[in-house]
Inverse folding.
């Protein structure tokens, strides 16, 4: 299990992130504070406050998804 912090600034970035998450065969959660959303749900991710830094928790490993996480990672 891994955790990364990301920032999604536009709807297009959310679409790219959710599409990449959808290709994974394991659970991926996105959360901040006490709100936890399934990363494969476009409506769920869009309903989050995108002005905040989000934490992504992966319950598996995918090199392709890791590249997507790196793209949106917070320094």
């Amino acid at each position: 299990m891994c955790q990364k912090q990301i920032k999604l600034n536009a709807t297009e970035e959310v679409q790219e992130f959710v599409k990449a998450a959808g290709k994974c065969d394991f659970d991926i959660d996105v959360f901040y504070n006490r709100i936890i959303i399934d990363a494969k749900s476009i409506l769920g991710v869009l309903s989050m406050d995108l002005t905040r830094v989000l934490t992504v928790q992966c319950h598996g490993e995918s090199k392709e998804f890791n590249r997507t996480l790196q793209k949106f990672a917070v320094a």
